[in-house]
Amino acid sequence: MLAIKERIVELPRDKSASHIKIMAAAKAEFMEMGFEKASMRSIAGRSGMTAAGIYRHCKDKGDLFYQLVSPAEDKLMAWAVAHMRRYDEPVKKSRQVVWQDSFIDMMREVVYPNMEDYHLLIAKSKGSKYEDYLHHLTEMAQDKFLAYLGELGKSGIKVPEISAQQLHLLLTAYLTALFEPVVHNYPREEADEALATLEKFFLPGWKKMMGV
Question: Based on the number of CB atoms within 10 Å of its own CB, is 155 exposed (0-12), middle (13-18) or buried (19 or more)?
Answer without folding.
Answer: middle
